[in-house]
UniProtKB/TrEMBL annotation:
NCBIfam families: Ac-peptdase-euk (TIGR01880). Residues 1-26 form the signal peptide. Zn(2+) 2 binds at D139, E176, H416. The lineage of its organism: Eukaryota, Viridiplantae, Streptophyta, Embryophyta, Tracheophyta. It is an enzyme of class 3 (hydrolase). One of its GO terms (biological process) is amino acid metabolic process. It holds the Pfam family Peptidase_M20. It comes from Centaurea solstitialis. Binds 2 Zn(2+) ions per subunit. Keywords: Cytoplasm, Hydrolase, Metal-binding, Signal, Zinc. The active site is at D108, E175 (proton acceptor). Its EC number is 3.5.1.14. This is N-acyl-aliphatic-L-amino acid amidohydrolase.
Length: 458
């Protein structure tokens, strides 16, 4: 017999025995607790298939707008590109002239191979251990909903919290394919300029350890295609400078460089985000035939594509010289031109300075973030450079501090992987952490320094 059945029977008997008595039965919350509702909302968001190449952006937007309405948040739908809605929510502070806080997340997720998952990737099933399996559970629908749940907590009538600074929450499209139709256009827009943003929080990574990871910068992509040419020849002939021979020499040179960078990581001398990573993405060569490739003909050209990621602390100009002189030298009939980059993002801003956010006492937001996490009984690891790319770079390019943070400790890193999951207790803990962060950020008022203070500092 369930608890509900037992209580219903007791209530019915009391009503029959004491018909003139009004009976109020209070439930202890176990049947429909706040945590159950929170997890249910998370599951509903995860169940919306926003995977590329055909993300259902409209359904995701409708869901976010419904949540905004339940929280009495101002909402705005922006479409910098038709069919790709960007949802912007606003909680106005009591001092709206102060620089605002932006909580950014993306609604899209990467594709899946459902047959390689132990649970359907868009069912958001919870196993006996409390793990929620779904694409986007780590990257990064969790963070987007945690923002809203933290606001829900703070707006609770028993809380009485009122932000001094205005809080914005943005749900952007297309991050997984570069963010060009989402965050990039948003950061350049008049709407964004008028928001007067002082700090941005964006996504980070899970931590397998018992601490949270904070990211102050990220590696920038350089997607390179190297092309080798040579005279075609009979498959049995040996001669110098064939297209395939020249390309293989380049690939070996790239491999040695990759190994030297990876050795620094494996030796513990540098973190993954602090080295230049190079991975071959494709190899294209050969003369096609109806049954495959012509086997007795050496091809006249061959290509290889490389995904290169450069941290802002590296010498990008030196890397480009290496590419031109060692990886794709003209002396080996190799071609390399800047135009051959499929994507190239500079690690420097328009003033030639590395694109990064201060991660010491010079940046009060960093100190506030660390303090708020500790106050919520969380631990913080050392500052890191994000090993891949996120939308945070578009805000840093505007000169705005942006910090990558996803509150997932004791969690394997599974973004873009099969069987991506997040434990429900870790998800709920992350909401508590964001409550602490928003209290600290939205209540922060910088003390204006007078002339005497500046003289003392100098």
């Amino acid at each position: 017999m369930t608890t509900m059945t037992f209580i219903s029977i007791v209530a019915l008997l009391l009503l029959l025995l004491l018909p003139s008595t009004i009976i109020i039965i209070a439930f202890d919350g176990d049947l429909d607790s706040d945590s159950d509702s929170i997890i249910s909302r998370f599951q509903r968001y995860l169940q919306i298939d926003t995977s590329h190449p055909s993300p259902d952006y409209q359904q995701a937007a409708d869901f976010i707008l419904s949540q905004a309405s339940s929280l009495s948040l101002e909402s705005q739908t922006l479409e910098f590109v038709k069919g790709k809605p960007l949802i912007l929510l606003k909680w106005t502070g009591t001092s709206p002239h102060l620089p605002s806080i932006l909580l950014n997340s993306h609604t899209d997720v990467v594709p899946v191979e459902p047959h390689k998952w132990s649970h359907p990737p868009f069912h958001a099933q919870i196993n006996s251990g409390g793990n929620i399996y779904a694409r986007g559970s780590q990257d990064m629908k969790c963070v987007g909903l945690q923002y809203l749940e933290a606001i829900r907590n703070l707006k609770n009538k028993d809380s009485g919290f009122q932000p001094i600074r205005t809080i914005y929450v943005s749900f952007v499209p297309d991050e997984e394919i570069g963010g060009h139709d989402g965050a990039e256009l948003f950061a350049k827009s008049k709407v964004f300029h008028e928001m007067n943003v002082g700090i941005v929080l964006d996504e980070g990574l899970a931590s397998p350890e018992d601490y949270y990871r904070l990211f102050y910068a990220e590696r920038c992509p350089m997607w390179l295609v190297i092309k080798a040419t040579g005279a075609p020849g009979h498959g049995a002939k040996l001669y110098d400078n064939t297209a395939m021979e020249n390309l293989m020499k380049s690939i070996e040179s790239v491999r040695r460089f990759r190994a030297s960078q990876f050795d620094l990581v494996k030796a513990g001398l540098k973190a993954e985000g602090e080295v230049i990573s190079v991975n071959m993405a494709f190899l294209k060569a050969g003369t096609p035939s109806p049954t495959g490739f012509v086997m007795n003909l050496q091809p006249s050209e061959a290509q290889a594509g490389f995904d290169i990621r450069v941290p802002p602390i590296a010498d990008q100009a030196s890397l480009e010289r290496r590419i031109a002189e060692e990886w794709a030298p003209a002396s080996r009939n190799m071609t390399f031109e800047s135009g051959q980059f499929k994507q190239k993002v500079s690690v420097y801003d328009e003033n030639g300075k590395p694109i990064l956010t201060g991660h010491d006492s010079s940046n009060p937001w960093w100190s506030l973030l660390e303090g708020a996490i500790l106050k919520a009984n969380g631990k913080v690891g050392k500052p890191e450079i994000f090993p891949a790319s996120t939308d945070a770079r578009y805000f840093r390019l505007r000169g705005i501090p942006a910090i990558g943070f996803s509150p997932m400790a004791n969690t394997p890193i599974l973004l873009h992987d099969h069987n991506e999951f997040l434990n429900k207790e870790e998800y709920l803990k992350g909401i508590e952490v964001y409550v602490s962060i928003l209290k600290a950020f939205a209540s922060f008022v910088e003390v204006e320094k007078d002339a005497a203070t500046y003289r003392d500092e100098l």
